[in-house]
Amino acid sequence: MLLTDNLFYFASFFIFIFGLIFGSFLNVVIYRLPEGKSLLFPASSCPECGTKIKFYDNIPVVSYIILRGKCRACGKRIPFVYPAIELLSAILFYLLFIKLFYNAFFHFNITSYNLPLFKDYLTRRLLLFMAYGFLILILISISFIDFFHRIIPDSLNIALIIAGFLFNIFLLHKGFLFPFAGFIAGGLFFYLIAVFYESVRKKEGLGGGDIKLIAGIGAFLGVKGVIFTIFAGSVFGLLGFILSVLYLNIQERTKTISSRSNKGNLIKNNNNYNSGNHHSDSIDYANPLAHNINTVSNNDNAAHISSNTNSEIHLEKRESDLNNKEDDNFISSKIPFGPFLSMAAVLYTFYGSYLMNIYIDFIKR
Predict the structure, then answer these.
(1) In 3D, which of 315, 305, 310, 303 has the Cα closest to residue 262?
(2) Are residues 333 and 245 in contact, defined by beta-carbon separation less than 8 angstroms?
(3) Which of 8, 186, 194, 272 is the most buried (most CB within 10 A)?
């Protein structure tokens, strides 16, 4: 055997570290690209205090653990999303390595007769790893930018489209028709949906970024990949919409309960003030100074009650507005579609062919 267990463990460690490093760079892309900043200069710095991060504090995941999630300079909390993106990149890279090379280490019997075949096999797997690895990195960046900013930068979509054509034509040797058919199928389908939705609802449904994204995914994965991505992405998107509606519903109801509680406290305070007014009316006004003091106190209480009454009316109006607009908020709430399309495309790179075959066999029965 040319490949041993020790080599497999070494390669696994190397690939995982490689994924962490790329994940660290993706953090820079996700943070700076939407703001139009350079991806290379200046060096990374704390978003709170602006202090430049030392190289030993910029080790993916490890530095976050050592610093306990805080900036060394100002002590502010570092968002957990940074190490999460690094770990996500590393895990996906490692899973892709397992998918493409596991059989080469443990299930491929190498002899002097099939050695050339084995070399071709490894070369093919390496090219697939490069292509799908690039696809995964781009999709991670697009997903988080779309999630946080509701935009998909054209630079990432264009890079995805161009890379899809180049990888399929020159590295994977699938010809021009494979990426072109996927590009047209995905882009044209989403474009027609966008035009139809806008003509019916008189507002934008699918953004141009989503249309370019599915076209880029088609350029990478072909027509079958587009079909799977649209179907699975729609299912993921529906689940995401349901969860977001439930979350918004809980938030709105919590605000409504809080408003009612505040209104009850105001009514209780008003009753206390009224009780205090009756008490001051019973005071002997024989002393002119006492009479003046009580008059001022009564005026202050009246003004305070008037203020509380206005606040109560404002709270009632706010509660009414929340109840009246609750359904509109759920219907009009927009969630980004890019992350769900990206999830579906990544799923296809790992299990797409297997799942498509299961579906085709099910249809034939």
Answers:
(1) 315
(2) yes
(3) 186
Q: In the chain, what are the domain boundaries?
A: 1-107, 150-365
Contact between 194 and 206 (Cβ < 8 Å): yes
Six-digit token pair at 76?
């502010």
Close Cβ partners of 207 (under 8 Å, ≥ 6 residues apart): 152, 194
Rounded Cα gap, residues 207 and 189, in angstroms: 13
Separation CA 138–CA 119 (nearest Å): 29
For residue 219, is pLDDT > 90?
yes
CA 332, 334, 340 angle in degrees (round to 5)? 145
Token pair listed for 338: 């890019």
Output the six-digit token pair for 262.
């505040």
Those residues with Cβ within 8 angstroms of residue 194's Cβ, 6 or more apart along the chain or in another chain: 204, 205, 206, 207, 211
Q: pTM (2 decimals)?
A: 0.79
Q: Tell me the three state secondary structure of residue 149.
A: helix
Q: How many CB atoms lie within 10 A of CB 44?
A: 16
Q: Please tell me the distance from the alpha carbon of residue 180 to that of residue 175, in angstroms, as a whole number.
A: 9
The Cα 337–Cα 343 span in angstroms is 10
Cis omega (within 30 of 0) for bond into 42: yes
pLDDT digits (tens, 9 = 90+) for 237-291: 999 989 888 888 888 888 777 776 766 665 555 555 455 444 444 434 344 333 4
CB 30 within 8 A of CB 145: yes
DSSP element (H, E) containing 362: helix 338-364
Report residue 240 as tokens: 């995401």
Tokens of 109: 């019997």
Which residue shows structure tokens 């934008």?
Answer: 204
